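Protein Record: Sequence and Backbone Structure Tokens
======================================================
Tokens: labelled as protein backbone structure tokens, with as many entries as the chain has residues.
Question of interest: how does this chain fold, as expressed in backbone structure tokens?

___
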Amino acid sequence: MTDQTTAALPALKAVYSTVAATEIARVIQETYSLGAVAFCELIRRGFNDVYDVRFESGERCAARLAGLRARGPANSAYEGALLAHLQTAGVAVGAAIPNAEGALWRDFAAPEGARTLMLFRWLDGAPPRANLDDVALMGRGLALIHEAAETYAGPPSRYAYSLEALRRGGLARLLAAPTMDDAARSSVTGLMTRLELRLAQASELRQVTCHGDCHGGNTFMASGADGVRVAGFFDFDDAGPGPLAFDLAVYLWAHLQQTGGAIPQARSLAAWAAFITGYRTAREIPPADFAAIAGFVSFRHLWFMGEYASRVPEWGMVSLSPDWISRQIELLESWETLETPPV
């Protein structure tokens, strides 16, 4: 925003800006029919910026200002319609709220370009963490998402999870990163080639509507008025069509990444067993898809590294240092012999 002290100065273009919570409160109050905003503060910044918004009526929501992604525009039409469909089907999700004009999103001009604002129903509770009963409910909840999404007939997703999409997107950005040397590029290219051979039959695996980020941090466990625990799901900006094995692999990947090892530790195996057992209470996992999960752990990590590479202009080269890249390559190489832990 320009003021009298900067109006005469040469303008500089930003690659990322943190929008003041007071501005988020203002535009929400102006564009939604939810009354006066009593409280608005930034919860976290990152791939997206999320704000806690509370109205004088007592209603509480989460506002999300999407970050600019290297992959392209926000997937807002698909995400909003998918959330509405899942909510209608009885799945616990933080559904998008329409503004006064009935739209589920609106673009605003930020210093770096157009950013998309969406407002979502607030989900009470906390992530399941080490509570195995809650982890099982999260697994079951993911199965219910996959089941309900089979009848989704709204706008198509802009993005999908496939080996081709990974090679054209995140992998290409990673290989072009300024901190990658020839040896690292050769290693990553070799890893991708071997992964494609390992997942050669991926297109024949069961395809689902993937949440895309079901690692535990986007699931909120809460007890209803009847005392029954419910897993509520948030953050569907990475949702899209892809293999069932990929969506399940994200949870295993999260545990393996945290421990930094090739072999899941006892605590991770217990959580993995609870997650898969919970999923199977609502939906089957074909044997071929289950076996393929281990390969998609590497797929997920290459996708993750590509996302980091795309953030170098924002986070700086330190976020993709040669040492960090070397550690990730070692981790990926150790996962080449990983097999899906049996449950």
User: Anything to note?
Assistant: The longest strand covers residues 113-121. The two ends are 55 Å apart (CA to CA).
